[in-house]
Structure formats: structure tokens, C-alpha cells
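New to this. Please check this record:
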Amino acid sequence: MAAFPNVAVRNVPGFNIPQFDHVDLAYVGSTNNLSTVTYKEGGASGTTVATLTFTYIGGTPSTDDAKIDTVTKS
């Protein structure tokens, strides 16, 4: 049984992520705020298939748990 059996997957135009088998997370400085999420096919040294870049309200955060302003996919 799935961990979240009642949660529907939403397809948001422009934000579909191609097939991947590895995810790299990068953080802003020493905070717990994500700066990028990189999806790769072919493992850690594989080909990047998509990247999500995060910006935060008020600019670059210096403390944990900042509020996300935008997410851009490239």
C-alpha cells in the first residue's frame, strides 16, 4: 500500500519533471532553506534533467525556515 493512498498527483503545466533516479539538494548557507533541487538521470554523476531554484521573501535568508517567494524550473 502506498504511504499516502488518498493523495492525488497533480500535473502542473511547465513543472513536470522528466524521468530521474537521483536528486541533489543544495541549501542557502548553513540554513535549512533550499536553494536548488537538481534532478538527474544516470545517478549522481548523470545528466541533469531539471532544476528547481528557490527565492525567498526578503532576499537571501540567514535564518532557518524562511518563506519561499518563487520556484523556477529550468
